[in-house]
Amino acid sequence: MPDPPRRQLRCALPLLCALLAAVSAPCPPRCACSQAARTVECTSRDLRAVPRGIPADTRTLVLTGNRIRLGPESLQELRNLRNLSSLVLRDNRIQDLDSRTFSGLPSLRSLDLSRNQLSVIHPEAFVVQTGSLRDLNLSRALHNPSSVVDLAASLRRGSLEALQVLDLSHNGLVLLPAGVFGGLEALQVLDLSHNALRAVPEEGLAELDQVLDRVPGAAVLLGGNPFTCSCSIQPLAAWLNRSWSLVQDAADLRCASPPALRNLTVLEAAAALPLGCPRGPGGAPRALQTSYVFLGLVLGLVGLVFLFVLYLNRRGIKKRVFGLRDACREVWEGYHFQTDSDPRGARGSAGTEA
Hints:
The chain is an alpha/beta fold. Among the domains are: 94-273, Ribonuclease Inhibitor (Leucine-rich repeat, LRR (right-handed beta-alpha superhelix)); 280-335. The protein has helices spanning 4-24, 72-79, 148-157, 202-214, 234-243, 266-272, 286-312, 314-341, 343-353; strands at residues 32-34, 39-41, 60-62, 86-88, 96-97, 110-112, 120-121, 135-137, 165-167, 189-191, 219-221, 227-228, 255-257. The chain has a nine-stranded mixed β-sheet with strand order 1-2-3-4-6-8-9-10-11, covered by helices on one side. The chain has a two-stranded parallel sheet with strand order 5-7. The termini are far apart.
């Protein structure tokens, strides 16, 4: 039976070997590594690709402030990191995301692509084999607002059923495409703050309702958008009254125009709008419905006046019609007379008969 000190030594040997292996694990040049946290950080190193030699057990990789292009070489380096759970690619001037760019990272849970210049996003750019992605940061990531169309397709087809946090703030979005959040079944936080939304139509509000109704406690952020507080803001105000507790920054939803309502909250501005703005039962503003009815009445009145004028002048109109008919008859008879009296026409007809 081995003595206790020898037994303790045997138990400590595996731990000592693991510690020595961790200490001797290589770190890529120009990067800082933490073996305890399994983190590799390469910040502002002017890297053009994912560095080689990243330890295979790395869980967090930070590549902020470089010029990394996600080409074949970088993708191959990423595919070697099977345990990577957090990838930070902030501020790398990335413009394109190809199909299944991150599919080789089965453990990826958090992806930060903020402060890039995305202009082309493949519909399957965010597909991860295991569907493990939970947090997607795209703040200041879109090169122009039109990129939201590509983004919408990638969110619908990206196998993001488990995504919980989506940050789309500071992207200049002017609208929410139909069905953009349709496949995000587990979304808990949606950040749409500081964009260019001037109003949210009823279709967009229906999209937000779908997000908020799926998961208990889900929340959305809409502050910092330049809302135009005209009659078109009424649907948003009514939605805020219903969903006040689910909008984390509801008090920050303020009007940017018109000048008379600037800096008022959306709810304050909705209460200050004219009486013509309340909504009718058909969904369109009542003032708009009234204007359509008034236009129809005016056109009908104009038609009646026109018919009445024709009726009053029926005799004069009849006389003018008869005069026009007689004039046309005289012109026609004169034309035939000139044709019959022309000798060349007579000779021509005689020759024809011969």
